[in-house]
Structures are given as structure tokens and as C-alpha cells.
Amino acid sequence: MAPQNMPAVSIDINMFWQIINFLILMFFFKKYFQKPIAKILDARKEKIANELKQAEIDRELAAKANKESEDILKSAKAEATEILLKAEKKAEERKESILKEANTQREKTIKSADVEVQKMKEQARKELQGEVTDLAVKLAEKMIAEKLDTNLGANLLDNFIEEVGEEK
């Protein structure tokens, strides 16, 4: 038997009909289904593109809102620091005011106490002079009562009266 050479591509009748069926199917697909499917694909492509654009816009808005919130937070921190500094300054001023008022009150109290002490000293001095005068009068009465006629008694009385007179 002689070797039969087989052709590189053999097309038999079944393959021919399959190719014809495929071409008819492609014709119907192109005529009836290509435009609706293309519209659906284009609509889907447009929807995806719009969603991507919206996502980009949303991302930019979120970044902007994040930056604004950071700025607000920074300004709030700065404002809080400023408020604290003002409060500390007010507290320091209030402290100084209270200390000044306390010192003024202390000075007034010291002055009034000094005036009171001076008054008490003056009153004590007057009372003491009154008592000394009373004692001198009593001594004089006693001496007169005993009728001291001697120079010694008279000299004692004169000396005592002169000493009391000098203290006034």
C-alpha cells in the first residue's frame, strides 16, 4: 500500500456547513444584537466613568473637608491656648489686686492700731497723773493732819510737789 498523503487542511462537507452557519450567525448577531449590546456596554462604560469621576470628586471633597477640620482643630487649639493665657493673666491680675488690697488693709489696720495705742498711752498717762496727783494730795493731807512743823516735813512736801509738777 502506498502511503497516502494527507492534505495539510482537509475541509469536508461538515466543516463547510459549520463555517456557513457561523457566518450566518455572525450576520444576525451584527444586524440585530451588536447595536443594543454596544448601547448597553457604552451605558455601562459611561456609568463607570461617571462613578469614577464622582469618586474622584468625593475624594477631593473628603480631602478638603479633612484639611478644613484640621485647620479648625488647629484654630480651636490656638484659641484654647489664648483663652488659657488670658485666664492666667486675669488670675495674676486678680492675685495682684487682692495682694494690693490686703496690703492697703494691713496698712490701715496698723495705722488705726498705732492711733489706738497712742490714745491708750495718752489715757494711761492721764490716769497715772491723776493717781499721782491723788497720792500727792493724800500725802499732803496726812502731813498736814500730823501737823508736821519741822523743816524736814515741809522740805519733803515741797520736793514731792516739784517732782509731780515737772512730770506734767
TrEMBL record:
Organism expressing this protein natively: Propionigenium maris DSM 9537
Gene name for this UniProt entry: atpF
Stretches of the chain forming a coiled coil according to its record: 38-108
GO molecular function, one term: proton-transporting ATPase activity, rotational mechanism
Record field: transmembrane: 6-29
Family assignment from sequence similarity: Belongs to the ATPase B chain family.
Pfam families from the UniProt entry: ATP-synt_B (PF00430)
CC terms in the record's Gene Ontology section: endomembrane system; plasma membrane; proton-transporting ATP synthase complex
The name this protein goes by in its record: ATP synthase subunit b
Keywords: ATP synthesis, Cell membrane, CF(0), Coiled coil, Hydrogen ion transport, Ion transport, Membrane, Transmembrane, Transmembrane helix, Transport
Description of how the protein assembles with itself and partners: F-type ATPases have 2 components, F(1) - the catalytic core - and F(0) - the membrane proton channel. F(1) has five subunits: alpha(3), beta(3), gamma(1), delta(1), epsilon(1). F(0) has three main subunits: a(1), b(2) and c(10-14). The alpha and beta chains form an alternating ring which encloses part of the gamma chain. F(1) is attached to F(0) by a central stalk formed by the gamma and epsilon chains, while a peripheral stalk is formed by the delta and b chains.
Compartments, record wording: Cell membrane; Endomembrane system
Membrane topology: Single-pass membrane protein
Function field: F(1)F(0) ATP synthase produces ATP from ADP in the presence of a proton or sodium gradient. F-type ATPases consist of two structural domains, F(1) containing the extramembraneous catalytic core and F(0) containing the membrane proton channel, linked together by a central stalk and a peripheral stalk. During catalysis, ATP synthesis in the catalytic domain of F(1) is coupled via a rotary mechanism of the central stalk subunits to proton translocation. Component of the F(0) channel, it forms part of the peripheral stalk, linking F(1) to F(0).
